[in-house]
From TrEMBL:
<feature type="active site">
    <location>
        <position position="64"/>
    </location>
</feature>
<dbReference type="GO" id="GO:0000455">
    <property type="term" value="P:enzyme-directed rRNA pseudouridine synthesis"/>
</dbReference>
<keyword id="KW-0413">Isomerase</keyword>
<keyword id="KW-0819">tRNA processing</keyword>
<feature type="domain" description="Pseudouridine synthase RsuA/RluA-like">
    <location>
        <begin position="22"/>
        <end position="169"/>
    </location>
</feature>
<dbReference type="GO" id="GO:0160142">
    <property type="term" value="F:23S rRNA pseudouridine(746) synthase activity"/>
</dbReference>
<dbReference type="InterPro" id="IPR006145">
    <property type="entry name" value="PsdUridine_synth_RsuA/RluA"/>
</dbReference>
<dbReference type="InterPro" id="IPR006224">
    <property type="entry name" value="PsdUridine_synth_RluA-like_CS"/>
</dbReference>
<comment type="function">
    <text>Dual specificity enzyme that catalyzes the synthesis of pseudouridine from uracil-746 in 23S ribosomal RNA and from uracil-32 in the anticodon stem and loop of transfer RNAs.</text>
</comment>
<dbReference type="InterPro" id="IPR006225">
    <property type="entry name" value="PsdUridine_synth_RluC/D"/>
</dbReference>
<dbReference type="InterPro" id="IPR020103">
    <property type="entry name" value="PsdUridine_synth_cat_dom_sf"/>
</dbReference>
<dbReference type="Pfam" id="PF00849">
    <property type="entry name" value="PseudoU_synth_2"/>
</dbReference>
<comment type="function">
    <text>Responsible for synthesis of pseudouridine from uracil.</text>
</comment>
<dbReference type="GO" id="GO:0008033">
    <property type="term" value="P:tRNA processing"/>
</dbReference>
<dbReference type="GO" id="GO:0160151">
    <property type="term" value="F:tRNA pseudouridine(32) synthase activity"/>
</dbReference>
<comment type="similarity">
    <text>Belongs to the pseudouridine synthase RluA family.</text>
</comment>
<dbReference type="InterPro" id="IPR050188">
    <property type="entry name" value="RluA_PseudoU_synthase"/>
</dbReference>
Length: 245
């Protein structure tokens, strides 16, 4: 499905949450591309706005255009290599908040369903047990509302549209989702109800574990969840000893 109209938000132009001489973390608003699209009219993006101020800045991961929240950038090549290696070997953790349609029966659990691109309907993804790539998402209910539920989501893998398809597979699509919701689930919200609220990673210079949190505009009670609600701690190799990507 091609983008028919692109009207990215202009205020605030850039919302920087944290920066030092090695990295920068920004809060991307919904409706703004992470990186430029192929067409000239799709050049405006979080990266293109930042590169005006930081010419050497590098992208290390992305968010869907309609998803809001934290994006981590590298300010130089050494930081870029370190951070990309961490994402490759799953040394980073991200927590999202989502508003989904209906009420989940389980308070917490894990979705383990393989995903693959639905080529005739791309960029949609779909569950495919024959050729899909392994995909896991942990979830926990944060608040039950009248017609919707706020859930915390911890993706173990990082497949395209993973959280959106996994929530749909439970029968509770994320509200405002143009690809995976319909009827009231789509019309009840003027935006995709998905926000990347928290990101943990090893600082590329100090090698210390960092955790950065940014509030969620559609759920003001959102709070830091890494280590408080989820327990992502496991025996992980020191990323400095891993082979280069």
């Amino acid at each position: 499905m091609a983008m028919t109209e692109y009207n990215p938000p202009r205020e605030p132009w850039v919302d920087i949450v944290f920066e030092d001489e090695h990295i920068l973390v920004a809060n991307k608003p919904p409706g703004l591309l992470s990186v430029p699209g192929r067409l000239e009219e799709h050049y405006d993006s979080l990266w293109s706005r930042l590169v005006e101020m930081y010419p050497e800045i590098q992208v290390v991961h992305r968010l869907d255009m309609d998803t809001s929240g934290l994006m981590l950038f590298a300010k130089h090549k050494d930081a870029e290599r370190s951070l990309k290696k961490q994402f490759q070997y799953r040394l980073t953790h991200k927590v999202y908040y989502a508003r989904v349609w209906g009420h989940l029966e389980q308070h917490e659990g894990e979705v383990d369903l393989p995903l693959i691109c639905d080529w005739p309907n791309r960029p949609r993804q779909k569950v495919c047990f024959e050729d899909g790539k392994p995909s896991q998402t942990r979830f926990e209910v944060a608040k039950r509302e009248e017609n919707t539920t706020i859930v915390r989501l911890l993706p173990i893998t990082g497949r395209s549209h993973q959280l959106r398809v996994h929530m749909q597979s439970l029968g509770h699509p994320i509200v405002g989702d143009e690809f995976y919701s319909e009827g009231e689930a789509f019309t009840c919200s003027d935006r995709l109800g998905l926000h990347a609220a928290e990101l943990s990673f090893y600082h590329p210079h100090t090698h210390q574990l960092e955790s950065i949190f940014v509030p969620c505009d559609f759920y003001l009670e959102a709070e830091s969840a890494i280590f408080n609600y989820f327990d992502p701690v496991r025996e992980l190799p020191d990323y400095k000893t891993l082979p280069r990507p």
